[in-house]
């Protein structure tokens, strides 16, 4: 009875992990695709882009926030795919800060609603002044640093999965190239959205692996013999 319960529990966790990774990627890409377009990175342009299309900006913010949060849950669950010591340390060293960074960015996106309100409720110069004053506060560094560290952490995590035999070397290679391209492209538009989608392909495959390893025969084969406990 106990063994069957453990197998069923592990199967459910892997199904949920696969769903979180795949749906997280879909929602995140949809969030980037719905970011209101802007011509440059100036504060006034950024606030105007959000404030002039509040409906689209709110939709994008919700999708981005939920997408990052779901991916963070998926990353934590996917660590159980590593069976044994090989690749385990690299996977954990990458997955933990990556998930933490995703949660951090998910919360940061909530500020988009205040940016919309700034543009719609204040003159342009006042809105920019308040926005830039908030961005200049030292505490915002915590969100900036954790957000950027998330990207190299994901690369380290993927290398760990390669070492563990869960993914092939194509995964960190594709992710690494796409990550460089993501930071080299404009922040808004179909180009960065497409690059982000390519960058997250390894996470989708990781989700598929989780579904594959949720099969009863696979879970049963992973059980530790009683003599080895």
Automatic annotation (TrEMBL):
Keywords: Membrane, Transmembrane, Transmembrane helix. The chain crosses the membrane at residues 15-35, 55-76, 88-110, 141-159, 166-184, 190-208. It comes from the Bacteria. The keyword Disulfide bond does not apply. This is DUF4386 family protein. It comes from Dactylosporangium sucinum.
